[in-house]
Each structure stands twice: as structure tokens, then as C-alpha cells.
Design a protein that fits this description.
With about 280 residues, the chain is α/β, with parallel strands linked by helices. Helices cover about 40% and strands about 10% of the residues. A hairpin with a 5-residue loop joins strand 1 and strand 2.
Length: about 280
């Protein structure tokens, strides 16, 4: 369409025939007169796409395409990208390639998660309520499944809160093989180290000043701030706790994750009662 409009403008400006312009550009004249017609369901598809974009303003077209497929649309990423650009929606910047840390013997420095509950990682994120008072969140994720296991929100969090949160998770999910973190005082506290060792897990501290070694949790923190914290005004701590927990459940059960083939980390499966086979 753009090239057709460009040729029309050139013909009007240079007073040259369309036949000659097409011959010079090597374009068949039939393409100059052909008007592409979209599919019959395109208007409804665009409506659904824009509605999802309004609801999840920080998602790119690939994640929106995955949500549309979950809703029953049979579309691929290329079609959604075309409509996305046509509607003038935000196109996400290309992510830079990430390097990896290697030793001289060719082995990777980073401990790689190989199964669920193999490596957990945790970190703190700081934010403020509308009155200017700060609060912290303790984010705990399973590196293999990318599932966010817990987000604890309080004005102040210390080593005791770390132990309490991990205790609740250990009761529900069991004990992981490793727990990765930075060298913050809440994580390297002797009480935390002794307690983790006593339950049978191992600590995996990253090198000081090397946050990329805790890349899974750092990536989650970036998504958490971009999609939740930066888009909400929290008037009270209780409101922050409720909204953040709602986002955590959405992240686990609905939000498509690119590293998982655009599937959520822990999707919910609902079976309606009327779909069960009849008993005879």
C-alpha cells in the first residue's frame, strides 16, 4: 500500500505515466491496481487485540498473540505484527543479546537449574506508597519453571522475615537443592545460613557487584516493576499487598512467558462439571 501511494505521488509530480514508472522500478502494474482485502474476521481481531493492549499495556505483539491464541483465535505472530504496526501500537525494542560467564576450562560459572525446585532465587525490591513512605518486597522464584513462589510485602523486611517466608514455602512445596541470592545482609546473616543448612538446602551466593549472576531474579524484578509497580498508585500498604498478590497470580497462571514458549509458568486447569462423562 505504501509503495502504491508513493508511485501515485511520483506520477503526479513528474508527469510520467504509471506504465513507465512501474517498468523502471520493476513492479508489475497489476500490483499497482490491486487493493488488498483483509479477512472477514479482521475487525473483530483488531478489536480484541486493542482491548488486550489496553489491559496489558507493557506487553509486546508476541505476548498479545499468545493471549489471543489462548482465547481461541487461530493467528500467528506475523499477522498480529502487521495489524500491530498498522494500528500504530507500541513496538518493543529489540532486546540486546546477553553474554555468559565462562571459565578458562570452558565451564559456565552460573549454576544452571535443571528441574523444578532445583534452584530458587530471591531478592528485594524497593517502592513507595503515595504518602512517600517506603516498603520492600521479598520476591522468591523457581528458576527452572520461572514461577513466582511468593512476594512478601512489608514496610521493613529482615532476616527473620526471610526465614518465615521460606518456612511457609518449604511446608507447601518441599525443600529446594539450592537457594541463590546476592550478598545482602538479610541473606548472608548467620541465622539464615544456619537455618538453610539445617533443613538440607545449600546457599549459592553470587559474586559481589555481579547482579547478572542472579539473572533469573533480576529479570523477574524488572518485569515486576515495569508491569506492576510503575503502573499503580498504592495509597496504603494493605492495598499494595492485595494488588501485588493479584499480579503474582496473573504472572503465574495467565501471563505468557517467552522462555516457556509463550505459556504461563503455572497455568490453571479448570474442568467444568457438565463436561465430565456421565456415570452409568
Amino acid at each position: 500500500a505504501r509503495r502504491r501511494d508513493c508511485i501515485d505521488r511520483v506520477c503526479d509530480k513528474l508527469k510520467v505515466s504509471e506504465r513507465r514508472i512501474c517498468r523502471v522500478l520493476g513492479q508489475h502494474r497489476s500490483t499497482q491496481r490491486h487493493v488488498p482485502r483483509g479477512q472477514a474476521d479482521e475487525a473483530r481481531l483488531v478489536t480484541d487485540m486493542i482491548e488486550l493492549t489496553r489491559q496489558y499495556g507493557r506487553y509486546g505483539y508476541r505476548r498479545i498473540a499468545a493471549l489471543l491464541r489462548d482465547a481461541g483465535w487461530h493467528v500467528n505472530d506475523k499477522r498480529i505484527e502487521r495489524l500491530w504496526r498498522r494500528e500504530g501500537l507500541k513496538v518493543p525494542r529489540k532486546q540486546p543479546q546477553k553474554g555468559r560467564l565462562w571459565l578458562n576450562d570452558g565451564s559456565c560459572v552460573r549454576l544452571r537449574p535443571q528441574y523444578r525446585d532445583h534452584v530458587w532465587s530471591y531478592d528485594f525490591v524497593h517502592h513507595r506508597t503515595d504518602d512517600g513512605r517506603s516498603f520492600r518486597t521479598l520476591n522468591i522464584i523457581d528458576e527452572y519453571s520461572r514461577e513466582c513462589l511468593a512476594i512478601r510485602v512489608k514496610r521493613k523486611l529482615n532476616s527473620t522475615d526471610v526465614i518465615d517466608t521460606l518456612t511457609d514455602l518449604f511446608i507447601i512445596r518441599g525443600i529446594p537443592a539450592y537457594i541463590r541470592s546476592d550478598n545482602g545482609p538479610e541473606f548472608v546473616a548467620q541465622a539464615v545460613r544456619d537455618w538453610i543448612k539445617a533443613v538440607g538446602a545449600k546457599t549459592a551466593y553470587i559474586e559481589p557487584g555481579s547482579p547478572w549472576e542472579n539473572g533469573y531474579c533480576e529479570s523477574f524484578n524488572a518485569r515486576f516493576r515495569d508491569e506492576c509497580l510503575n503502573g499503580e498508585i498504592f495509597y496504603t500498604l494493605k492495598e499494595a499487598q492485595i494488588i501485588i498478590e493479584q499480579w503474582r497470580r496473573h504472572y503465574n497462571t495467565v501471563r505468557p512467558h517467552s522462555a516457556l514458549g509463550y505459556r504461563p509458568p503455572a497455568p490453571e486447569t479448570i474442568v467444568q462439571m457438565d463436561q465430565r462423562p456421565a456415570m452409568h
